[in-house]
Structures are given as structure tokens and as C-alpha cells.
Amino acid sequence: MVDLPGEVFVRARFLDHTDYNPHGFGTHIALGDGPPAVTPGPDRFAARRIPVDRLTVRTVRRVRGADGDTVPGDWHIAELDDGGRTVRLAAAPDDLARVLRELRPAVHERS
């Protein structure tokens, strides 16, 4: 995790290709000053806003072999519903909990 004034860049990866993570380019999630975003490094360069209004957390689980070689074995996976499609977000357990807390307020506003 990298802290900059007003922002935190959490090492995390969406494992599925989406409009906010094309070709799996993202290695970090930006939290703080701007909207949550996927970035290819610990800064806002080429940031893609995460559409938190259409995401719902389904489950959080440990890494499985089918999740691929790019995910460290001690990370966890959040399975999210993105408008009817499952997308997976991987991060270290504490980092994943932090990202999900940041995404949750927007998700609850829909209810």
C-alpha cells in the first residue's frame, strides 16, 4: 500500500476484463481524494473509475488454483456482481477489506 497526501493506493487486481480494467491492466486501487479507481501503478496515471453504483459483493473467499498464477496464495478474492456479471477482485486480506469498505457506502445508497 502506498500513501500519498489524501490518497491510498492499495495493491489489488481485478482478475476479469471489464470496462474499468481492460486487458487486466490494473495493479492497484486508488482510494481517497477522487472516486475509487483501478490504476496500473501507485498513482492516478491512466486511472479508470470503478462503477461502484453497479457493484454488489457476493462473497469473499481464499484463492483457488483456478484464480491464476498472478494472485499470491495468501490473498483473498471478492466475487462481485457487476450488473449481472461476476468479477473477481484479489488483494491481501486487510487490503481487500479496506477496498470493500470504501466501495460499500455507494452500494448501500442504491437500496
Descriptive notes:
- This protein has 111 residues and is of the alpha+beta class.
- It has one domain: PH-domain like.
- It has one helix and eight strands, in the order E-E-E-E-E-E-E-E-H.
- Strands 1, 2, 3, 4, 5, 6, 7 and 8 form an eight-stranded antiparallel β-sheet that branches.
Mind telling me which CATH architecture this is?
Answer: Roll
> Which H/E pattern describes the elements?
EEEEEEEEH
Portion of residues in beta strands equals 35-45%
Integer average pLDDT = 88
The number of distinct β-strands equals 8
Q: Please estimate the helix content.
A: 10-25%
So how many helices?
1
Annotated CATH topology: PH-domain like
Main sheet makeup: 8 strands, antiparallel
Number of domains: 1
- The poorly predicted ranges are 106-111
Distance linking N and C termini: 31 Å
Per CATH, the class reads Mainly Beta
Shape: globular
Indicate the structural class. alpha+beta
Please give the radius of gyration in angstroms.
13 Å
Main features:
111 residues; alpha+beta; PH-domain like; eight-stranded antiparallel beta sheet; 1 helix; 39% strand
Short structural description:
By secondary structure, the chain is α+β, with helices and mostly antiparallel strands. It is built from one helix and eight strands; from the N terminus they run ββββββββα.
Describe the protein's topology:
Blueprint: E1 2-4, E2 7-14, E3 28-32, E4 37-39, E5 48-49, E6 55-62, E7 76-82, E8 85-91, H1 93-109
Antiparallel strand pairs: 1-2, 2-3, 2-8, 3-4, 4-5, 6-7, 7-8
